[in-house]
Each structure stands twice: as structure tokens, then as C-alpha cells.
Amino acid sequence: MKKAFSLALVPVVALTLSACSGLGSADYDRIHAEAVKASFQANGIATLDYLKQDPSNELCSAADVAGKPLDEKTARALEEAEMKTIKWPSDGQFLGDWKKGESIAQSGRGLTWTDTAGSPNGGNCYNCHQIDKKEISFGNLGPSLYNYGKLRGVTDPNSPQAKAIVEYTWGKLWNSRAYNACSQMPRAGHKGILSEQNMKDVMALLLDPKSPVNQ
Amino acid sequence: MKHAVVHRRLLAATLALGAGAAFAQGNTALDGIAKYREMLQDGNPAELFEMKGEELWKQKRGPKSASLEQCDLGKGPGVLKGAFTELPRFFADTGKVMDLETRLIHCMVTLQGFNEADLYKAAPSIGRGEGANLVAITTYVATQSKGMRFNLPFNTEQEKTMYQVGKRLFFQRGGPHDFACATCHNTDGGRIRLQELPNLSKNPGDGVGFAAWPAYRVSNSQMWTMQKRLNDCYRQQRFPEPKFGSDVTIALSVYMGVNAKGAESIVPAIKR
Questions:
Q1: What is the pLDDT of residues A23-43, one digit of tens each?
Q2: pTM of this prediction?
Q3: Which domain holds residue B239?
Q4: Residue B262, burial from CB neighbour count under 10 angstroms (0-12, 13-18, 19+)
């Protein structure tokens, strides 16, 4: 079994070396793809489907390897395509219960090979963001979201004045890449991490004037 | 005797940590871990694994009833000092780039006559049988390079290829959360909650990142090697599981090891 996956690399390298000196970027891309195919195995709900990249992940990964951002045209095209994936709340209500939103934001569980299908997923929010000031164990890979609604002047989330920021926040949570082509933030709605109701509850945590986030 | 000392110190430190954690969270929790590490300096539980590993290294075992003392880890048969801080590297006798763990399996097969497939099957179970033995031997061998600086030879086409494959893996986004290794490990000063994240795209400093493993994990009382560390990274990244010793794990180790050139190995480290 071991031989099958390790030897896969060697003949490729040897053959190419005998033909010319040194390998190019395209060769490394191909050998990388072969290594991925040979090295991973499905475990529980983490099947090999997890490895399939959509155009966005493919292009963003390649840009990261190259060490330069996507060109403007490609980035805008990707954002447009991602924007089309956003599903707006079916009943027109954007906000749920901030208390439930807080527990979703706290949880980092779900979708690993030690999780079971159908168990509730967390939003992983505190892993990267400051949110409620009372929670001092927060990550810093994303910006602070403390006072998120207050700082944006949201006093009544149902008012016409708040419409733009409420819709933007929903869209950003649903599919962050609609606004930033290679955003590092998980696409919580688009990838099915959070349900529509989960989304509403997290929205309330960020935008409800009564939420501790906005005190 | 030494075992008893280690256990007593571990118990005392655990009690101290428990008391500390009860008072407050946050930075106090980090301080608690730092204090715990300090208290364990003379009695790191990893020493138990190291001692077991030394016994296994010298013991005649396997169908050929041979020890591992003639195992060539890259610096000649039986040379342990400095071997770990030059791994993974290319081995002409197998035609492969190997890390410490896959090289040890190779020696267990060639010198002691163990069955290769059986060892690969046992290796992921770090708490029992030959899996636990491999963890102990890995800890023993790695510890012989304690205080030395990583300096992978990185001078063959095969190693350069593995580095390039590792770089592509590092930036490979996928799974339901679109995570890559780089999502968390491509920035300086990053944190998940309060956990500090090493920037693995460069030398993150002495005794952090690649230079911190194998390590004893306080949270689950287990000794983790780099293979186990990578396995659990991919679990949390929401990827499928990498097979033990697979090209993906070797390539990422080459990428991190080459980037960590000059970083001091503090093996065996203590982690939360």
C-alpha cells in the first residue's frame, strides 16, 4: 500500500530529469495533484469530495502559490459569480435571536471527520473575531466586530436607513467572496455550514441594538 | 525511580494549573500553561517516551531479532546526533524523500524484518502496539538533536520537488470551510482564540512550528509526532484524512522544515 503512493512521484521525476534539466511550475502542479490523489482517504463525513475545488478555490490557491493577487478582471468576475449564489431570507426577515447567535458564534464544531452527519455546525466566529466584549478568548485573523451595528449607525434594523448595511451583512455571511474574491472567511451560507435560521441568529448578534455586541 | 519523580512533578503541576485556571481565563490561562511548562522543565513527561524509545532502539526485536542501532537516518549507520534536524531528506537506497517516522519504519523492515504493511497499519494508533513503539522511538531519536538547528540538506531534485508540492499543499483551499494551511499559518502574530499561530511560510523562530515537535500534549496526555500533528491539522481544516507517511505529509514537512532553517529544535516540547 505504502509503495503504491510513494513510488508514484519517483518515476515522474526521474523521467523528466532524463529528458531535460529541472522541472517547471506546471510539472509541480501535476505532481502535486498526483500526490493529493494518492495521499488522502475518506474518513466518516470527510469524503474525497472535500478535495474538489470550485473555480474560486482553484484560482485563489494558485494566486497564493504565485504570491500575487488575482488580476482585477478575474477578481471582479469571481465576485460577480459568487454574488449570484446568495440566497436572501425566504420570509424577508433578516434578524433572529441574538442569544442563539452568540452560541453559534462560540461553537467551532462541525464537518470534521470526527463529527457526525447532521450534528449542528458552529459558526467558528470567535476563532477569528472579537465580538461580545465579555468574551476575552477571541482570535485576531479577522477584524473586531464589537459594536458592529452601533458603529454603522443601526438603531432600527428594519428601517430603510439600515437596509443597505443589513443586506451587506447577510451577503457577507452567506458568501464572503461576493465582496472580496479571495476572502479567507468561510462561505457560511453558500457552503451549507449555517442554515438560514442560524444566519438570522448570527445577524441579530451583530445588528440587534439589544445585543451585547452593540452596548 | 526517574518515572516516580516525573509522575510526582506532573501531579503537582497539574494541581497548580487546575487552581490557576479556576481563578481566571484569558491571559491567566496562558500564564498557567507557561508556569506548567516551567515546573515540568526537570521532569517533562516526554522523558518517559524517550526512555522507552531508547530501550526499543537498542533491543533485539522482530523476526530478525536485531536492534535498530545500525539504522541509517541520513548521517550514516547508527549516527543519531543531528539526524533529526536534517529530516526529511532524500535517501538514495529507497529513492524517496523520507521523514524520521517513515525512515524508522524502513529500518524496522530492513533490519528487524517487520512487515511494512503491518507497520503502516499500526502507526496511526499512537497509543498502542507498534504505533506507540514508533512514537517512543521517534521521540528518542529526535531528542538526540535537542538544541540543534534545523538544516535540511535540500540539495536534490527530489527534495526540491517535494518542497514545491508542499508549497502547493500549504496554499490549497478546500473542504466545506475553504480552509488551507495558509488560512491560519501565513501571518505573523495570528491567533485562533488565544492560541498563537506560527507563520509556517518562513522560519517562525526557535522552538515553534516545525521545531516544536514531537511534543507532549498536556490536554490529552499524549506524545504527538509530526505525522500525528499534520493528521489533526487536516482534521480541523475539514479535509479528508492523509494516510500515514503519505507524500502529502512528507511534502508539507519538507516545506516547513526548509522554511524553518536555523530554528532551534526544543524537542521534546510541551504543548497545551
A1: 999 999 999 999 999 999 999
A2: 0.89
A3: 157-271
A4: exposed
